[in-house]
Amino acid sequence: MDTAGEEIVAGGDKNAKRKQLLDLNEDEKVEHLETMTQYKSYAKIGLLSFSILLQVIATCLLFVERIAFNKQAYSKSHKYDIAIGVLVIVIIVVNIFTSAFGLTADCCATPLDTVSMEEGSGH
Hints:
It contains 4 helices and no strands. It is an all-alpha fold. 2% of the residues are buried.
C-alpha cells in the first residue's frame, strides 16, 4: 500500500514538473511572438515598398512600350508587353504575401492616431 501511495506522490510530482515546463514554454513562446511582431512589421513595410517599386517600374515600361508602338517597333512593343505582364503577376504575388502578414492599422499608425483611436474620438 505504501508503494502505491509513493507512486501517486511521484506521479503528482511529475505532473507538477510537466506543468512548470509547459508554463516556461508558454512564456518563451509569448516572448518569441513579441520579438517576431517587430520583424513582422519590417516585413510588411519591406513588401509594400517592393510592391510600390514594381508598380513604378511597370508604369515606366508602359510609357516606353507606348513610345515603341508609336514608332512601329512592334517586336520591341511585344517584348515590353510580356515584361509588363510578368511584372503584374509578381506584383500580385507580393501583394498576396503582404496581405498574409495581416496589415493592420496599428502597424502604420502614428502615436497621435493611436491616442485618438483609444479615446474613441476618431481622426
